[in-house]
Write a structure and sequence with these properties.
239 residues, mainly alpha, three-stranded parallel beta sheet, 51% helix, ATP hydrolysis activity, ATPase AAA-type core domain-containing protein
Length: 239
């Protein structure tokens, strides 16, 4: 929707690699020529840290050549304004520095979890799917629900919504606040709090604009953030 509003055609690229010798390069050349002829396209690479490859010592030669071809296309001045690249990843630290520099994917825009009023508006949106609003809760119920979902990821809220919609379908009516609380307390999301902390800190240190940084990181130095990132990676067994 965003691409169309900007006057661009969204194109999602995935599964470029082939199993035969030379197939990957041929596939990419076809993609490149089509995109350059079309113009006004927004190329979207999701899960870019695993899809794009790189130039590391352990990288396959085919992936290195594909990565180099992508970099050349991104840097081509003839494509400026005609081909926009959207690189989506939760682990920007795993992307090669070459792709993150100015002139390629140089603007790093983080997506943080909503906080405060924005978070309540997001939860209200979830509740609206089952015919309720946070305003329908008593004050103590609302606070308990907000506290219980404090560490929910967006995916956790989607699963909670699925659970609520299932219960609504089974009862053939709108759910009461008590039933929503009961369903919420019954759902135990996977504990990925350390991974999410790491992803948030990485988003902070990679962010291109001070105005996009949440208040809780406003006074944090990047040096302190990198220290915490290192500690979290140790806890997660990444170092």
């Amino acid at each position: 929707a965003f691409a169309k509003e900007c006057g661009y055609l969204p194109v999602i690229i995935k599964n470029v690699r082939g199993q035969y010798v030379g197939q990957t390069e041929m596939t990419w050349e076809k993609i490149r020529s089509i995109l350059e002829v079309m113009g006004n396209v927004m190329v979207i690479y999701d899960e870019a840290d695993t899809e794009l490859g790189g130039r590391g010592a352990g990288t396959h030669d085919v992936d290195k050549r594909l990565f180099g071809a992508i970099l050349r296309m991104m840097s081509d001045p003839n494509n400026r304004g005609k081909i926009i690249w959207i690189i989506i990843t939760a682990r920007p630290d795993k992307l090669e520095p070459d792709i993150k520099r100015t002139g390629r994917a140089g603007e790093h825009l983080p997506v943080f979890d909503p906080e405060g009023q924005e978070r309540e508006e997001f939860i209200d949106f979830v509740m609206s799917k089952v015919g309720l609003s946070l305003n329908d809760f008593l004050a103590d119920q609302k606070q308990r629900f907000l506290d219980h979902t404090a560490n929910y990821s967006p995916a956790d809220f989607i699963q909670l919504l699925t659970n609520l919609e299932r219960k609504k379908h089974l009862t053939s009516r709108n759910l009461t606040t008590a039933e929503i609380l009961e369903t919420g307390y019954d759902f135990i999301p996977a504990d990925i709090s350390l991974q999410r902390q790491l992803q948030e800190l990485l988003a902070f240190v990679e962010c291109s604009y001070q105005s996009l940084i949440p208040e809780k990181y406003a006074n944090m130095t990047k040096q302190k953030a990198y220290t915490q990132i290192g500690e979290l990676k140790v806890l997660l067994g990444e170092n």
